[in-house]
Amino acid sequence: MDENEIDFIxxxxxxGEEIQFREGKSIQLLEYNEEIDExxxxxxxxxxxxxxxxxxxxxxxxxxxxxxxxxxxxxxxxLGAEMNGCTRGIQMWNTPFLHHGKRVIVLDxxxxxxxxxxxxxxxxxxxxxxxxxxxxxxxxxxxxGKGDIGKLFLMNDLSRYIQTPNCKFLPRLxxxxxxxxxxxxxxxxxxxxxxxxxxxxxxxxxxxxxxEDFEVYSLPYPGLPREKLQHMDKxxxxxxxxxxxxxxxxxxxxxxNNLQPKYIGASPMSGVSFAKFLKECVRSLNDxxxxxxxxxxxxYRSVVEYVAQKSMQHSNEMYQxxxxxxxxxxxxxxxxxxxxEMHDRAFNEVxxxxxxxxxxxxxxxxxxxxxxxxxxxxxxxSFHEKNSTALYLYNLDLGGKLxxxxxxxxxxxxSLFTTQEDFEGAIAIFELEMxxxxxxxxxxxRVMAKFKSEEYKxxxxxxxxxGIFEQTYAEQLKENQESQTxxxxxxxxxxxxxxxxxNIKKEHEEIRRRLEMKIETMDNCLVDQQIQxxxxxxxxxxxxxxxxxxxxxxxxxxxxxxxxxxxEMKSKKEFWKKINANNKIKRRFxxxxxxxx
Length: 597
Prior knowledge:
GO terms for molecular function: GTP binding; GTPase activity. The chain has helices at about 45-50, 65-70, 120-130, 190-200, 200-210, 225-230, 240-255, 270-285, 295-330, 335-355, 360-405, 420-435, 440-465, 470-530, 535-595; strands spanning about 25-35, 40, 55-60, 90-95, 95-100, 100-110, 135-140, 160-165, 170-180, 215-220, 265, 265-270, 295.
């Protein structure tokens, strides 16, 4: 097997102790081409990310050995013996692990403060790590001297590099104070800020302002000889000093227990959405016009639109597969009750899938939902039409057989009906058998309408031709059948409209309930992010209310339009009912006249 295809390291150097071991190996995610000043995304790594369905937690680490320890091992990500780190670009672990419902992707970033790399790439790397990670682990010397703070000075003016959205977007900052040999302070956060303030007061203030809740861990000297320090991936756990091991375990478990997903506003990203976000951020950094600037609102908007389209496409394909499978199993035609139950099962399944995948604000989700509903409705109508056609043909075939049995024999010269009563009796039996045998639905009304407008008319013409019916009676009978035909067709359309209205009410109630669940989840996500900005909560609540109002308005417009069509059908039916009643009076008068003669 090609070594590039091996998905794990066969001879591993396990850390053990209280840190869980993770299988896998490192692969390259991003490569930086200094000649053309361009970041290249590796397709293999991107495919792994896109395959993740759970919320993703992105941990960016600037020290390869600590990235290994997060996986319960000393080896995995390559270590460098010289000052300039050996990682080129950004490496990732090829088997992101599941932790408390989140899939953790650890990124090993090239030493951000490597003196041998270009400042252009170092700045891009720092900004990219800040934007794409949900936890950013920055490693500095425990003394926190002027020469130790690295790229933290960029915190002074992040707006120069990042256009910020109206929501929390920066990661949880974790500071690792390496080789810390002083007496432990009461509070490492306070210690770090005080020391940083001494060398760069603006950076200290920026961190306090932008990172409301960051972590600081100290790691003492490892206790290894110099030659071992250059190859820590080959050292065994017992060789490290006990205090170092204890602090490493505390830092790793503390970081993992405080992991949060990568969010877009109040929605956690999955693999697909993060992969798209990464591509958009890289595209921005590769654009020379941007001057190393990422517009987070623009990238978020692009991701939300992309995920909406992917979610709709995926849900639509799910619906089609479900319906086709069910139809293949149970065959057409099927009673409308069974068809509607089948559609409801499919709709509920894909609706949940859609809302699980969709991102963005409540109003954005509501707008995407409208497009999603249109797509599903279009497919439902396609399957509806297939079943309707099958039902119509089934009932029509049944009608043909019953017509031949009860009516057609009396229209031949050899066995012709001899009286009006014989014909009307045969018709009554035919209609009774049809009502008992047909599959119910608007199609049965249309089939009866067809027989009344075609077969009945032809039968009357034949019986009039043979002198069984007088012209006046025949014309009145035709008029009566015409009015009944119109009533049946209008009743069929009215039934379809009423069914459509009931479906809209039911489906919109399901969508409303699912949107409320999504909004509640988003609210909980904001709480989990520990956001202190009350205006952000107010804005989101206003957006939630607007989304619910939009959904209600959408339903009301649909129902109002359908109700108007139903009223029109009822009005037309009343007209034909009067015509039908008048025809019956005419026939009764004609019958009485004939009997009198």
